[in-house]
Specification:
mainly beta; 4-stranded antiparallel β-sheet; 0% helix; globular
Length: 188
């Protein structure tokens, strides 16, 4: 929709994913080259997965039809969130069940290729009660915030991690504590 409220891509919009299955929880972010990236949870393969798609400023779908799998492995992944990477792509973060529930991320380059390890990089060795939050760091990386409990006896606390352009964790294996006050903290 342009600044005057006109539907730029036509009255029927642009289909992001029309694959059979149950696609939910879509999130969209503007990219630095004038397009947009969308990520969503998708069960077309019989388990919860994360898919992404890029659309250019003219409404052309740029990556493979139906989107690309952000992590090609066959375990459950869910709660996708994303931010732009400053280079026409996006950084996607999600919960992952490969070894219990942990938080992983992947940078998808403008051409739709995965920039980090094929199955993503582990951001936190735990997960929270709410979706992870992500925002760009202004240098091609991202900040990821989460309400985390490191073991079931501890309350949820707020932590943040910074990933650089190459997917390296810059603030140690647990990130940086934002709030570890008595009782529980939620929804950073």
């Amino acid at each position: 929709i342009d600044v005057n409220g006109n539907l730029v891509w036509g009255p029927d919009a642009v289909p992001v994913c029309i694959e059979p299955g149950y696609a939910t929880n879509p999130h969209v972010v503007a990219t630095s080259d004038g397009g947009a990236c969308v990520a969503w949870d998708d069960n077309r393969n019989g388990y919860s997965d994360i898919y992404a798609q890029k659309i250019d400023q003219n409404g052309q779908v740029l990556w493979q039809s139906g989107g690309m799998a952000v992590c090609p492995e066959s375990w459950n992944k869910y709660s996708a969130q994303l931010t732009g990477d400053g280079a026409g792509g996006a950084i996607v973060v999600w919960y992952d069940e490969r070894s219990y529930n942990e938080t992983y991320a992947q940078r998808i380059q403008s051409d739709g290729s995965r920039a980090w390890a094929e199955s993503g990089v582990r951001v936190f060795a735990s997960y929270g009660d709410d979706d992870p939050r992500i925002m760009p760091d202004g240098a091609g990386g991202a900040f990821v915030a989460l309400d985390i409990y490191w073991d079931e006896e501890e309350p949820n606390d707020i932590y943040i991690q910074r990933l650089d352009h190459d997917g390296n964790l810059l603030w140690g294996p647990r990130g940086s504590a934002v709030c570890v006050a008595e009782h529980e903290q939620f929804r950073p």
